[in-house]
Amino acid sequence: MNNRMIIGLEVHVELKTKSKMFCRCSTEYFGKEPNTHTCPICLGLPGALPYPNRQAIEWCILIGLALNCEILNHSKFDRKNYFYPDLPKGYQISQYDLPFCINGKINVDFNDKQKSIRIRRVHMEEDTGKLIHQTINGKGVSLIDFNRSGVPLVEIVTEPDFENAFEVKQYLQKLQQIVRYLGVSDADMEKGQMRLEPNISISLNLKSNDLPKYKVEVKNINSFSFVEKAINYELKRQLEILEKGQTPLQETRGWDENKQATVSQRIKEEANDYRYFPEPDIPPIELTDAEIKSIKNTLPELPDQKTDRFQKEYLLTAYDAQILTRERALTDYFEEACELGKNENITPKQIANLIINKKINPDEVLPAELIKQIILTHKNNDIGEEELRQVIQKILKTYPNIAVEYASGKENILQFAIGQVMYIIKKKIDINLVRKLILEELK
Amino acid sequence: MKNLTLKSAKEKLIKKEISAKELTKFYLERIKKLDKEINSFNIVCEKEALEQAEKADKLLSEKQDLPLLGIPIAIKDLFSTKGVQTTASSNVLKGYIPPYDATVIQKLKDAGAIILGKTNCDAWAHGSSGENSDFGPTKNPWDQTRTPGGSSSGSASAVTADFALASTGTDTGGSIRLPASFTNTVGLKPTYGRVSRYGVIAMASSLDSIGHFTKTVEDSALFLNITAGKDQMDATTPDVPVPDYTKSLNQDIKGLRIGVPKEFFIDGLDLKIRQAIKNALKFYEEEGAEIIEVSLPNTEHAIATYYIIQPAEVSSNLARYDGIRYGNSRESFGAEAKRRIMLGTFTLSVGYYDAYYKKAMRIRTLIKQDYEKVFEKVDAIVAPVSPSMPWKLGEKINDPLTMYLSDIFTVTGNLAGIPGLSVPAGFSEGLPIGMQISGPQFSEELLFRLGHKFEINHDFYTKQPEL
Question: Which residue spans within B219-362 are E strands per DSSP?
Fold first, then answer.
């Protein structure tokens, strides 16, 4: 390879607080009648003022802590001024030079090696309304739904530490897993609760660590597979330009799933000057070390810690531990089952096997039922072995041709024998065990 | 019913000497008869006011005790009033009817006040003369060829013309104190954050202070009792307890130290105003206060600092009037608003931010520190409000810079976030003169005490313009 891809990521995560960032409207806008979750504040009516949501700020800081960030004792909100019809105040309340969290890092697995991805900042802002383009009475119109306006949004910005689409995808999955663990967002991509913006450039100079003089931003991607496709498309597109000796334009592009291509949205020359300045309607936020510590105390055990502990405490393989810790609900389920299993002499490994192999849905089977299942299987096996042997002997007597055909190499006849056993037993049994016993009898 | 104060009207209502309906009708009729010339109201809510008055009379007959029950007041057209057009005196918001009440309006309604209508002002509160209103200038009832001062021009004229017992105002650089001094009314610009800004159309958010006009200092204290306090809708209102501001009015002022900032007695200060302030200081000295010369060295930078910070915030605050909502296009903005939008957009732009906005914020801190130092030595400051007497309408409107300079003694108070009270201090050739009493943050009680002492010994407030 004679080129190096350089990718940084901006991820927006919508928080699932009860009320919006600066007003008391409900954040549950998905699928709701347009403009029913609005008030003077999130509509930006004359005279309305923002009042910051403490829970949202604490959750933003919690994300920062989970990503090993420094939390600033003194931070503030700023106004990001730009015009867009879905932005009712003409500015977005965001954070500019003093975000809540800076300088974090997170370890991500890429196949068998681990890499540390640096987090530049985690800051708090508000979501915009939504434009709906429709034809009404034959006329094309744009409608605005402000239900989403003011929903708390956390932006997580990495350093340009990724080299390919795979790394980006692994990081995104981990990030999604973490915010779900924290319980601060469902991070459902399809509902727009997590939105991705990679910055992509390519360097042909492998000796230098300098960043290329341009970067291409791909905006608002709402699936992991699109981000992968967009990056790979950009790799090809930018390389073609670079190999001609030219420099790709610094621009914002969007992923067009129909065209399977990124398309230009805005070139840098026309880009906004956001005229950031401190939000005068919200006093600066001062956080004492004690306050930060008390937020830190609410941090749950995170996926990495949990995976480690599961291996040590439950003697699971790394693979099993990773599967079980993908979602917090499943880990809780597993641990509850282990606790119940203790009294029945059931090992965590047995529980893990059942959950993983049978793809147990924690919402459908209670941990106690799971344990019962394991006990039952055991009982079937215990009583079954002698019983089974007798049944098999009886079947072999009734159907002497089983032995004959098996001897002549027709192994399919075993299926018939197993079928007969199951027909007689009429219970769930371990087929492998039945097969083993038949083979023993045939010898 | 002529020349009542808020306090005397309240007593008459309670004693049943007059009814709220009679009182409301009295003002509505005066407005109908006399305001065509003065132009202090954008909208008069006759029907609603009479309904409120009837309700008030009913409550009065049930011996309900609400602090402003049956008191007719006027509201600057910058305050959102549910169901009543709110325009900021700009064509941009013509026809806009808010679906909610500003916190202050809600409090006044809860206190039993009757809203007579919405008063004229410079559009978006941009101005010192009222002439930037898109609905025509307000005239000064003391001389109708002159300005009543701005931006709260209509609120000041309405109180002095006896169209209402009190009115609300906003003060970003002097918009309450200046018109109060031009109209022989008492104008209070409270400490920044003392009164909620929620629902009041923003001019420059870090400077906007919500206050009021009354005929007397005592009325001003009564009014602040209602409007002051922390608001869960305004994050810039601190949780500072609200005293009963009328309680300490009559306390002695002996031994109080009054500062006189030398930077305020400049060459451009009108001699008549200088004399009036001198007289007031002499009075305080005779009453046992100590007069001390102090220095606010950064005063000379105040106007420049103010005209960086204020337009920057204005440019952002007016961005929401983008022509998509509210029914009127951006072309409806007047010249002064456009000027401030352009100025503010420029100073916030990449490459200019550090040179202008950031530097201005640093000087703002120095101005604040000037005051902090001075208030270590003195309890309050007495100074002029305006460097000049009420000028002729049209005299300065084509010269924005001269107009900006009329705020020279008031903007420092907004930059420092401290309270200021404008109290009638005399007349010259039939035109009112005001004096400004300022103090540290949340020292409104002290300002009222000083103002009240002066007022009860001079009676300027009993003088009324001939209409």
Answer: 257-261, 290-294
CB distance B234–A90 less than 8 Å?
Answer: no
**Which of B312, B318, B319 lies at the smallest CB-CB distance from A277?**
B312
Structure tokens at B394: 């049209």
Q: Which neighbouring-strand residues pair with B213?
A: B167, B187
Question: Given CB atoms, is A121 within the 8 Å cutoff of chain B?
Answer: no
The verdict on whether B40 is a catalytic residue reads no
Per-residue model confidence as pLDDT tens digits over A321-380: 999 999 988 999 999 999 888 888 888 988 888 888 888 888 888 888 888 888 877 665
B175 an active-site residue?
yes
**How many angstroms separate the CA atoms of A44 and A90, rounded?**
9
Q: Which of B239, B241, B210, B235 is nearest to B107 (CA)?
A: B210
A269 touches chain B (CB under 8 A): no
Nearest alpha-carbon partner for A417 in A386, A387, A396 = A396
Residue A270 confidence (pLDDT) above 60: no
Q: Check B86 against A88: CB less than 8 A apart.
A: no
Angle separating helix axes A367-398 and A431-442, nearest 10 degrees: 20
Q: Check: CB of residue A103 under 8 Å from CB of residue A119.
A: yes
Phi, psi at A101, each rounded to 5°: -130, 135
3-state helix, strand, coil in chain B (%, to 5): 40, 15, 40
**Three-state SS for A406?**
helix
Residue A93, min C-alpha distance to chain B (Å): 11
Q: Map residue A302 onto helix, strand or coil.
A: coil
The answer to whether B320 faces chain A, any CB pair under 8 Å, is: yes
Query: Which of B96, B197, B324 is closest, CB to CB, to A85?
Result: B324
A88 contacts chain B (CB < 8 A) = yes
Bridge partners (DSSP) listed for residue A21: none
- What is the ipTM, given to two decimal places? 0.96
Q: Which two tokens stand for residue B363?
A: 């000087």
B332 is catalytic: no
Please name the residue ranges forming H helices in A67-212: 165-182
What is the mean predicted confidence (pLDDT) over A45-59?
98
pLDDT digits (tens, 9 = 90+) for B194-253: 999 999 999 999 999 999 999 999 999 999 999 999 999 999 999 999 999 999 999 999
Alpha helices in A216-277 (DSSP H): 224-243
Model's pTM, two decimal places? 0.91
Across the interface, whether the CB atoms of A280 and B198 are under 8 A apart is answered no
> Tens digits of per-residue pLDDT, B385-442?
999 999 999 998 888 888 888 899 999 999 999 999 999 999 999 999 999 999 999 9
Mean pLDDT calculated for residue range A13-40:
96
Spot the catalytic one: B19, B128, B153, B175: B175
Q: Which residue has the tokens 């307000």?
A: B138
CATH fold for the domain made of B6-301+359-462: Amidase signature (AS) enzymes (3.90.1300)
Residues 96-135 of B with CB under 8 A from A: 96, 98-100, 102
Which residues touch B148 (CB under 8 Å, ≥6 apart)? B40, B130, B138, B139, B140, B141, B156, B157, B160, B179, B182, B183, B390
Helix (H) or strand (E) holding A101: strand A101-110
Best residue in B103, B205, B361 for a mutation probing chain A (most A CBs within 10 Å): B205
A46 → chain B, closest CA residue: B201
Pick from A22, A35, A49 the residue to mutate for testing the B interface (most B CBs within 10 Å): A49
Chain A residues with CB under 8 Å of B202 CB are: 46-47
Token pair of A218 as six digits: 């791909």
Answer yes or no: is pLDDT of B2 > 80. yes
The residues near B412 (Cβ < 8 Å, ≥ 6 apart) are: B296, B299, B302, B367, B371
CB contacts, 8 Å: B319 with chain A = 81, 83, 89-91
- The secondary element (H helix, E strand) that includes residue A323 is helix A318-324
